[in-house]
Each structure stands twice: as C-alpha cells, then as structure tokens.
Task: structure prediction
Amino acid sequence: MPVVSYGEYLDVSEDKLIRAVTVSNLVTIFIKSKFGRLSSFCGAVIAAAGASCGIVYLLEYIWKIQE
Result:
C-alpha cells in the first residue's frame, strides 16, 4: 500500500506503478524466503524493505526526467 500511495502522489503511469508494486513484492518474497517460518527478523521490517525498494523504483523515474 505505501508504494501505491506514493505512486499516486507522484502521479506516475499505471504501468510504472504496477512495476513498482511488483518489485516491492518480489523483494519481500525473496527476503522472506531466506528466513525460516519463525525468526527474530520482524515481518514489518521485511515489508518495509520491500516497500522502500518499490518507492526507490518510482523515484528513479523522477530522476531520469530531471536530467
């Protein structure tokens, strides 16, 4: 949800938003796959890492426009 909210705030295209959400989900799944079912690594931290990757993907789009 943070990626979608930030994407709407930046007014990016639907295609770019879908790609950012996909990046976010794939990173989250990858990180979670490296840990067991129960670990001291909080699920909120994994979700935040995935969301931040999706937001960075959106920001890269903005940086390319400014160049």
